[in-house]
């Protein structure tokens, strides 16, 4: 379903939020919705654990390996960089990408450990900038109640509270704050509306921002 020549590009739409905020389910639902109305869309997620860098990240998250905070930060960023050219190709061919976590996770999770904010942001410069960030907003305590956390490294209430503060400091005009405490179907409908508007904006020719 890709486009040729000067046809409109796809939109880069990122879902962000704390662990257990509902990003992964909502991302999948959004992609099904877009495909259902005949729009070319793909579900992406970061970290992409299928690459060799992704496997190092996965081992770190499951506590099978230990890495310096700066080192793991750069690996998460490298994991986005290794997908950059494919992302741009997809967007240019008219496919909308719904991305479960992106650079904002990269900065928020490392800054929550106390790393310098500017240092955290630096390796993200030059990656395709999202057209829209959907932030699934949920109090950390509520997220922790949702079926409990798994065993991964960051899934702890005290740490998630710090991540929430860091996310809060990162908000900009590309963000839409979604109340993620409501029923799933309500959130799903709201996201559909917002995303439709955004796709229209890309059709009127916004360049892929860097
Ligand atoms: P997920 O597969 O979405 O559950 O993400 C795994 C965990 O890794 C989750 O706790 C969030 C965290 N995470 C995601 N992206 C980054 C990143 O770029 N940097 C850091 N430090 N953590 C990240
Ligand atoms: Na997780
Ligand atoms: Na997720």
From TrEMBL:
Residues 15-190 form the Thymidylate kinase-like domain. One of its GO terms (cellular component) is nucleus. InterPro entries: P-loop_NTPase, Thymidylate_kin-like_dom, Thymidylate_kin_CS, Thymidylate_kinase. Gene3D superfamilies: P-loop containing nucleotide triphosphate hydrolases. It is an enzyme of class 2 (transferase). Transmembrane segments: none annotated. It holds the Pfam family Thymidylate_kin. GO terms for biological process: dTDP biosynthetic process; dTTP biosynthetic process; dUDP biosynthetic process. NCBIfam families: DTMP_kinase. This is Thymidylate kinase. It comes from Linum tenue.
